[in-house]
Write a structure and sequence with these properties.
This protein has 135 residues and is mainly α. It is 47% helix and 0% strand. The model has no long low-confidence stretch (mean pLDDT 91). The protein binds iron/sulfur cluster (SF4) (2 copies).
């Protein structure tokens, strides 16, 4: 788990990851074709959470919580005429945010629960905490 203050090495690694994520969208023409199949956009109906919206924030190297609003389904990549690797960029952005201590608290709690209890819910009554249990 990242400490409250990221180390210099983590800050540099995060900056490099954001640079790489930004470069993934270098050829994006903002056509919006990627939006139609995006399940997150279908539910939230907000441009900013669409694949194109994520591309805009990543192109500007902005760390935004919307990067965690993605199922990694790659439907957008199927539609993209320029073969932009949206998920690769989103993953880099997420990794950068975690390195900077800006990951989601809920994710950190889930990871901690898995480490301590062997399940993401923090249920201590599981039979074998060495095994991973889920729903
Ligand atoms: S479909 Fe591809 S090129 Fe068009 S906005 Fe989406 S990511 Fe950019
Ligand atoms: S990978 Fe993410 S951005 Fe792309 S369609 Fe799926 S949920 Fe939307």
């Amino acid at each position: 788990m990242p400490s409250d203050k990221p180390s210099k090495a983590d800050r540099i690694a995060a900056a490099n990851l954001m640079e790489e994520a930004s470069e993934v969208f270098d050829n994006c023409i903002s056509c919006g074709m990627c939006k139609s199949l995006c399940p997150v956009f279908k539910i939230l109906k907000e441009e900013r959470v669409s694949p194109r919206g994520k591309g805009i924030v990543l192109s500007d190297k902005v760390m935004d919580k919307i990067l965690f609003e993605c199922t990694m389904c790659k439907a957008c990549e199927e539609k993209c005429p320029l073969n932009i690797k949206v998920c690769e960029a989103v993953m880099k952005g997420r990794e950068a945010m975690v390195l900077k201590g800006r990951g989601l608290k809920s994710n950190e709690e889930m990871i901690e629960n898995v480490r301590k209890c062997g399940n993401p819910f923090g249920d201590k009554d599981v039979k074998d905490p060495e095994k991973l249990y889920c729903c």
